[in-house]
Amino acid sequence: MNDPRLPIPDSGRPAAEQFVARHLSHLVCDVDRVSGSVRFRGGQTAADAALAAFDVTGYASRRNQVLPESDRGASALSPYIRHGLLTLRQVWDHVVGGPSGDVAKFRDELMWQEYARHWYLHHGTASTRGVRREQAHVEPTASWDRSMACVDVTLDELERDGWLVNQTRMWLASEWGVRRSGAWREGEEHFFRHLLDGSRAANRMGWQWTVGVGSAKHYGFSRSQVERRAPELCRGCELRSRCPIADWPDEPVREVAESPAGRRTSSDPVELSSVRSTGVEPEAVWLTAESLGDADPALSAHPELPVVFVFDEPLLARLQLSSKRLVFLVESLADLATRRALEVYRGQPHEVLACRPVAVTFAPVPGFRRIARRVAPAVVHPYPWLVTPSDGPIGSFSAWQRRRG
Ligand SMILES: Cc1cc2nc3c(=O)[nH]c(=O)nc-3n(C[C@H](O)[C@H](O)[C@H](O)COP(=O)(O)OP(=O)(O)OC[C@H]3O[C@@H](n4cnc5c(N)ncnc54)[C@H](O)[C@@H]3O)c2cc1C
């Protein structure tokens, strides 16, 4: 077997790209052009700077603006939130004192993120099975039409930066899943491969919400949204006089979709909110991609211990992510290495960590429980929830909000 230990990545974009090209290129979908996001840098330092620069003023009225970019009100904090470089609580607290309407709207969106995490924790992989929206009667034309400027410019941004505002995520998902009758799981995968904030929780929920999986409603995409949110796209579009989305899309063909039945995974509040220890002293902190920040509970509880990160080779080989996602992780590790003793490996976590007692933070994804069973950590710290999960309705955001209220 190859030595699973990798060198510590140096700081800086070129070093991170070289690291991915050298050690991880067999695990990415764009092996011939390994590169990082043009817009985002990974790491705690970049996350802290992005949060410090974010002013919530005007968020409510401008969060859906697409172009010009200078008019956007979206925070662009999602890649850092996704990887635990910023906790939802830190971001929630950051906007204290802002205009009340903007603060309320922004915090509502943070709650959507928390809801998506609870939803995915609850249903796990069943979140795809029970809620299929079949399109058996429609021929899928499953490719985007890049002669439409609204599609082309938006896909470019996704593939270049690994990020989109919520509005253009809905445009693309609706264009693919509603108007062109593409399979939503394929669209979800394309986003997941590129988005730096790509998570099974929020991405899957976003796709299902947009295309109307398990619901009588869907989001319709037409020229009027583009004219309103990004007028320059229509002005420069070669199809402006024969726009294929001038009218609202037809109602999609629907089949009855069942919801995922029952509770699939434990939402035991004790398991999810307390430190669980075997009594063995940990000798290292195992960091996962869900929780890479300095505020990670296991990391901050054991400041004297070395930190271990494992690029899960079989998982990444299956996922075939775009290289910018791995460059973002490598930049985050390089940044962490300036403050903590770090070890980086490529392999299977349970093999790399065999016989080594570790402390880790719970991650709200089904794979964590599966892998942790084999790693058998000495200490598991609770995930830094904004709201601790509990039993209760999880079928809709409003029902979930009500049961908390
Ligand atoms: C088809 C589709 C796919 C999506 N995929 C993802 C994904 O993989 N990862 C992801 O984090 N979000 C996803 N979203 C939700 C949302 O689009 C992004 O969170 C948001 O655009 C990120 O940009 P921002 O940080 O500027 O958001 P802001 O508007 O500044 O919001 C602040 C934070 O609130 C949370 N948030 C905002 N809107 C939502 C939402 N609708 N659902 C859940 N959380 C939200 C995010 O953590 C975001 O960073 C998806 C939405 C759709 C429609």
Descriptive account of the structure:
The protein is an alpha/beta fold. The protein contains 20 helices and seven strands. It has a domain at 131-242: DNA Cyclobutane Dipyrimidine Photolyase, subunit A, domain 3, CATH 1.10.579. Helix content is 45%, strand content 7%. Strands 1-5-4-3-6-7-2 form a seven-stranded mixed sheet. Helix 1 (13-24) crosses helix 17 (323-336) and helix 9 (166-179) crosses helix 11 (200-211). It is globular, with a radius of gyration of 21 Å. The model has no long low-confidence stretch (mean pLDDT 92). The structure holds flavin-adenine dinucleotide (FAD). Flavin-adenine dinucleotide is lined by residues 63, 74-78, 81-82, 109-110, 112-113, 116, 165-166, 169-170, 173, 191, 195, 197-199, 202-203, 206-207, 210.
List the helices and strands and how they pair.
Elements: E1 5-6, H1 13-24, H2 44-53, H3 59-62, H4 78-82, H5 88-94, H6 100-123, H7 126-129, H8 149-161, H9 166-179, H10 184-194, H11 200-211, H12 223-229, H13 231-235, H14 269-273, E2 276-277, E3 284-287, H15 297-301, E4 307-312, H16 313-319, H17 323-336, E5 342-347, H18 349-352, E6 358-361, H19 366-375, E7 379-381, H20 397-404
Parallel strand pairs: 3-4, 3-6, 4-5, 6-7
Antiparallel strand pairs: 1-5, 2-7
The protein binds flavin-adenine dinucleotide.
